[in-house]
């Protein structure tokens, strides 16, 4: 398909490493609660789905060692790969919209890592806050810079098998989009929302960490994350798609699950 060696962080741009370092330093329970409060209390704005997709034409993910294309290309690559495999309509749509939370840069700033320049609270692998960070994470040498990691054991503030829904995962585009979808009427299945919320939690679905925190619902849902990862990761390609030729199909798909193309963000 292509010659990309996916998720190779040993030989990549310095900006990738620096983005992860800043995330490890700053992503704590205190920071998460601050960002959640700001999201809840911020007056929502209406952005059409087409405009939201186009906004990612200006966004290049600083944490991604694989490709340097605008993020909109990655979304359509993922969606087209799942469409080719005849995955369910809702799954194809999730592949298209899974990174739309990155448009939070519209409401962000450099200080909180939510801008185009400073992306450490928008992109990158996520991890559970309020407990020790597994050393299987990308750049584990940065774990010691995280106050939650230093102050808690592997359970931290959580109970055994209490479920991911009761855990606080580091703030990023996953959580932002998940909360946005809850604020907009749609008929996406629970599997779709689960994928949206946890697809960057590679420690969980790729490294099999956090098993002591999972409940039965998580165990049932994990297979969907692993399937999704096939299209999120292995569809990446530096060849440009003609997005204008594809938009009509996916906008019609969007209309099947949402009552309006205008979304509250």
How would you characterize the overall build of this protein?
The protein contains eleven helices and two strands. The protein is mainly α and 265 residues long. It has one domain. The protein has a two-stranded antiparallel ribbon. Helix 4 packs antiparallel against helix 5 and helix 8 (190-198) packs across helix 10. The N and C termini lie far apart (36 Å).
Short structural description:
This protein is mainly α and 265 residues long. The protein has one domain. Helices cover 44% and strands 2% of the residues.
In the residues, how many domains can be counted? 1
Walk across the major sheet and give the strand order: 1-2
Q: Per DSSP, what share of the residues sits in E-state strands of 2 or more residues?
A: under 5%
Mean pLDDT, nearest integer? 93
Helix-strand layout with pairing:
Layout (H helix, E strand, L loop, with lengths): L13 H13 L2 H13 L4 E3 H7 L15 H14 L4 H9 L49 H5 L21 H10 L7 H9 L3 H4 L10 H18 L9 H15 L4 E3 L1
Antiparallel strand pairs: 1-2
Helix pairs in contact: 4-5, 5-11, 7-8, 8-10
């Amino acid at each position: 398909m292509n010659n990309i060696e996916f998720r190779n962080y040993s030989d990549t741009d310095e900006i990738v490493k620096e983005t992860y370092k800043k995330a490890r330093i700053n992503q704590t329970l205190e920071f998460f609660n601050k960002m959640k409060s700001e999201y809840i209390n911020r007056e929502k704005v209406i952005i059409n789905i087409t405009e939201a997709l186009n906004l990612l034409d200006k966004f290049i993910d600083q944490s991604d060692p694989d490709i340097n294309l605008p993020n909109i290309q990655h979304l359509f690559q993922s969606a087209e790969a799942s469409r080719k495999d005849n995955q369910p309509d809702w799954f194809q749509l999730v592949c298209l919209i899974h990174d739309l939370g990155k448009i939070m840069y519209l409401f962000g700033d450099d200080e909180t890592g939510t801008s185009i320049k400073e992306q450490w609270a928008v992109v990158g692998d996520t991890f559970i806050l309020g407990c020790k960070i597994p050393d299987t994470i990308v750049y584990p040498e940065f774990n010691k810079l995280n106050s939650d990691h230093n102050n808690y054991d592997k359970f931290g503030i959580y109970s055994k098998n209490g479920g991911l829904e009761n855990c606080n995962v580091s703030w990023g585009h996953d959580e932002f989009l998940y909360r946005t979808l809850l604020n907009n009427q749609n008929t996406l299945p629970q599997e779709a929302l689960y994928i949206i919320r946890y697809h960057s939690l590679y420690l969980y679905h790729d490294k099999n960490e956090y098993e002591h925190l999972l409940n039965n619902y998580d165990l049932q849902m994990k297979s969907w994350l692993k399937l999704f990862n096939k299209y999120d990761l292995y569809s990446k390609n530096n060849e440009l798609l003609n997005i204008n030729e594809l938009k009509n199909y996916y906008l019609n798909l969007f209309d099947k699950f949402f009552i309006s193309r205008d979304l509250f963000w």
